[in-house]
Design goal:
alpha+beta
Length: about 60
């Protein structure tokens, strides 16, 4: 069975973990109502997408 010969150093461990950071969620403002929404999604508040009313929203 393979066993490490030496302890992994802090710099080597941190270099391996450099790609594990979480990226923040990208939000855009709806041009119709100003609500924060995810890009390329229908707005949940007003139901519009790319200037067209696609979903009827019950308020």
């Amino acid at each position: 069975m393979a066993v490490p010969k030496r302890r992994t150093s802090r710099s080597k461990r941190n270099k391996r973990r450099s790609h594990d950071a979480l990226t923040p969620v990208n939000v855009v403002e709806c041009p119709q109502c100003g609500e924060s929404t995810l890009p390329h999604r229908v707005c949940r508040r007003c139901g519009s997408y790319r200037g067209r009313q696609l979903v009827e929203v019950n308020e």
